[in-house]
Amino acid sequence: MEGDIHDYLNERKQHFTLWLRQTTLIYGLAILAGSLLLGTGGYLVMRGKLSLGELVAAEIVIGMMTISLLKLPKYLQSFYDL
Description:
Structural class: mainly alpha
Largest sheet: none
């Protein structure tokens, strides 16, 4: 009985460690994408290669993709609970 509880607690710890690692990676990618877009876009706007409107449009598109990506941890949690 005690061995079963120990095994369960180890599996639970591994489960949440994996989920936390994946969630951190997903949020990190979202932050990196936004930062790269703003940095590169700002540089291109200052150089006149990109208009401010194009930068705003690109930020909206990347933002919508990022929002979809940030929903992934919730779905992963539901999947892992099966």
